[in-house]
Amino acid sequence: MITIPEDLDYTGVFDEILERYTASHELVQVKTTNMGSLFKLTYHMVLNSTEEEKELIDKLRCRNGNLEISISHQETAVCEL
What we know:
A hairpin with a 4-residue loop joins strand 2 (22-33) and strand 3. Strands 1-3-2 form a 3-stranded antiparallel beta sheet, with helices on one face. The chain has 2 helices and 3 strands, in the order βαββα. By secondary structure, the chain is α+β, with helices and mostly antiparallel strands.
């Protein structure tokens, strides 16, 4: 989840960064918050390397004005046949 100010056009604003640090990414939710003055963008993404996670966050923070960023790790189930 990435928080951005309302005056930042979120369409493609992070594409360059996400293409560098992720194998795949998709914007799945846009939500207004703080009485409409902020957007919260939710992405599903697969990182190229977990070792570059902090570097990714730093690049995103520069672009979003140092507002809140949250990365959650999704558990995947392994099915055995």
